[in-house]
Amino acid sequence: MACDGKSIAGKPCCAPAAIHAQSSGAATTEFAFDREPEADVLDRMIALPGSKFLMGTDSPEAFAQDGEGPIRAVTLDPFSIDRYPVTNELFARFAAATGYRTEAECFGWSFVFWSHISPERFHDLVEDTVAAAPWWCKVPGACWNAPEGPGSNLSRREDHPVVHVSWNDAQAYCRWTGQRLPTEAEWEYAARGGLEQKTYPWGDKLRPEGEHRCNIWQGEFPNVDTGEDGFAGTCPVAAFLPNGFGLYSATGNTWEWCADWFDTEFHRAGPRENPKGPSKGSARVMKGGSFLCHKSYCNRYRVAARSSNTPDSSSSHMSFRCAR
Fold first, then answer.
1. 163 and 315 in contact (C-beta within 8 Å)?
2. Three-class SS of residue 182?
3. What tens digit of pLDDT does each residue of 101-115 get?
């Protein structure tokens, strides 16, 4: 389908947002998949008790424009959440079983980080870049099973998080499995792993005793990623230790969609019991940061940090995990 090559302003380092000329149809397809989760789905989940926790942060590291604060006591009912982000292997099962086409496939393109595109094919594949962040390239044919565009594939990446999936795509997958997307509050509570007001899922030090605990950018952003943590791009979902709840990959690797509409003021006066965000909006919440996050530019790999994007946008560093 036709779409233009423009992007909207916002936080393009985190997630460039596409302006599509018309709906892809993917988000409005009626699926008859709503069902109770099967045993293998439940086996991938962690059951968490209802609890009260301190959400948000007042840290000087916080981005005030993102609405990370104030710190507030939030109470949640019991829920379950996936141990890992949804992998390429699992999404492939969904696509094969249903014939579902992602919005990137319907629109015919998605955003790819510049250095992940084959140098010899760069000028053939790249159609446009994001003016505010030229490291984001519009690549025709880039989608979940061709992450860098035509000629790329998922070989040896079956256990990596699926990328190039929009919020609408994530919703469709959840309907098929009988799950849903976590609320922002549920996601943050799970990612904290039982620790109170710590910067990361494991504590306050990014590299305790010099050990890498997540997949983020090392080097000079956006030119050189030294891959000191072992990866330059996505990594297996279980590449690093889990947090105290047994949750893997909550920080770095890929951004994860949440159910909530994004708003920077809602949490200041909003509900404190099972908050679900505002009733409407133009963008959905994303949490966790990605392999592109770096302290010099986008220090949003902290647990309380947040970002957003339009529900039909996709890129090579956006994924999701499910809850119920």
1. yes
2. coil
3. 999 999 999 999 999
